[in-house]
Every structure is written in structure tokens, then in C-alpha cells.
Amino acid sequence: MKNLPSLNALRVFETAARYQSLVKASEELFVTQGAVSRQIRQLEATLGVILFERRNRGIFLTTAGEKLKQACQQAFGLLTLTIDGLQQSSQLTPLVVSCEPTIMMKWLIPKLIAFKANHPDIEIHLVSGGGNIDFSRNSVNLAIRRNDFLWDKRYVAEQLGREWIGPICLPNAEDHVTTHQPLTLLHTRTRPEAWNDWMSEIKQIIPKQNELWFEHFYILLEAVMAGHGVGISSIYMIEQELSDRRISAPYGFIPDGSAYYLISPEIFEVNTPQAIFLAWLKKTFHETQIRLTDFCRH
Questions:
Q1: Residue 219, φ and ψ in degrees, nearest 5
Q2: What pTM does this model have?
Q3: Per-residue pLDDT, 1
Q4: Beta partners for 56?
Q5: What gap in Å lies between CA 217 and CA 195, rounded to an integer?
Q6: 74 CB contacts (<8 Å, ≥6 apart)?
Q7: pLDDT at 158 over 60
Q8: pLDDT (tens digit, 9 = 90+) per residue, 223-244?
Q9: Within a 10 A sphere around the Cβ of 130, how many other Cβ atoms?
Q10: How far apart are CA 32 and CA 22, in angstroms?
Q11: How confident is the model over 189-200, as a mean pLDDT?
Q12: Distance CA 6, CA 103 (A)
């Protein structure tokens, strides 16, 4: 914590990064444009990196700036949800939702701001978790899981969306992938057969020069972004990176036969917080697929 810059500086940076404008940032924050500029310069000096390129009287995010922007938005989003929850009436019973770590970080948390805006009376608490879930032994109300295991038949499970997977790499490595040059393949222990499943389904062999293993997908994604090799990813986990063209998917994405589900120990009663959250999740999964349809191979 001692190495973190001030939260105020990060907030000023996030606002300027969101608008890519010092003027609009100053208007939102009710400070002068000069104050915004000074905060950003101090932040750049503290971090030792350039966050904005300044040209033609405009500002444009550098690669480092884009990465910090995404981290700030996720962090501030989670802080907003948490603080809103703390300020809610004690009479509100929160929905405690268990979710696999990477899809929670990369997909769910950024989108929950929209849910909160439309349903301010429903409080969501997120808990990181994967695999089997026992609702009788913890305070979790719902769980988002992929159906790669068998859960208790007494539970109710509603499908949210199919899983889509495919190789991902940096844009400058795309030619190496498609011309079948030997590459470093990146794996995760949470889905050890992902590469084999993809190659078998698409009938395409990616020659292996080396391989690296990671515990979770969010670590693998950082390794891909750092240029360590080619990984296999869920399309939901790199939505922003695909849209920003910071990551390439040279073969697109294919369904791997699995799907994401919302699991509950009870039926989804109409108009309950559980049912409202379920409907929103289904809609949001579908909207993600529509936005990324050009990357999907049917």
C-alpha cells in the first residue's frame, strides 16, 4: 500500500482518461484545468511512466495509461459498489454472489455499475470462488459457475450464456500464430485441457516451442499482454482488450460445449432480487455476445 499514489490523483487520472480531455475532466471534478494537469504530471512522476501523449492540443492514452485506466475503473467500480452497500439501510438483505475470479474481475464488476444504477434497492456482495458450491455451509445466495462439474441436483440452475474460447496473443504476434510457427503456449491449471479441446474441435495444430503454466486466467492474461506467449481465453474475459485492439484473436472463438449458469438453492420467484439479477445477467451475457459477434465462429 505504501507504494500506491494518492487516490485523488488516480481519480483525476481516471476522469481525464475516460473523456480523454482535461477540460471535461475539470468540469466533472469542479476544479481548474491546470489542477487536473498538475495532478496527472505528479502521477506520471510518481509512477515513472507516461500516461498521456499530448499532441495537437489533445491528450491520448499511452499503453501504460490504458492499462491504468482499466485498473482504476475496476477498482473504483468495486469501491462504489462496496460503499453504496455500506450506506444502504440495514433492513436491506444483500444478495451474496459467488463467482469465478477472472470473469468476476474482467466482466462482472465493470458491468455491475449499470445494474446498480437501474436497481439501487438491490445490494450485491461478490465473493470469489470456483468449483462446487455448498449453500448450506456459507452465506452465499447465488453462484455463477461454468458447468464443468456436477452440482447438487437439488439446486436450481439457469443458463446465462455459452462459453466461447480461442487463442489470444498480442497483435504483433498474430502472423506467427497463423503461419504455424512454434510458439510458447500458455496454460492455466483451472482449465488444463483448454488447448487440447480447442485444437481437437477446430482441427488445427499450434506447434509448441515451449509452455508455461499459471494458476488462474487473470495471471495468464497478464502474461499474454506482457508478450510471453499465446494463451487460450474465454471471450468474456477479454471483451475490453478485444474492443480496444490490444489483444488479437487470430482464429476467433468457438463454443467449447460448456456454458455459464446462475445456481440457486431455491427457485427464482418472480420479482425477487434473485430473479431480477438472473434476468439482468442473461441480458448482459447476450449483449456481450452480440458486441463480439465478429469474433465468434459458429
A1: -75, -40
A2: 0.67
A3: 53
A4: none
A5: 13
A6: 105, 109, 110
A7: yes
A8: 999 999 999 999 998 888 888 8
A9: 20
A10: 9
A11: 89
A12: 28
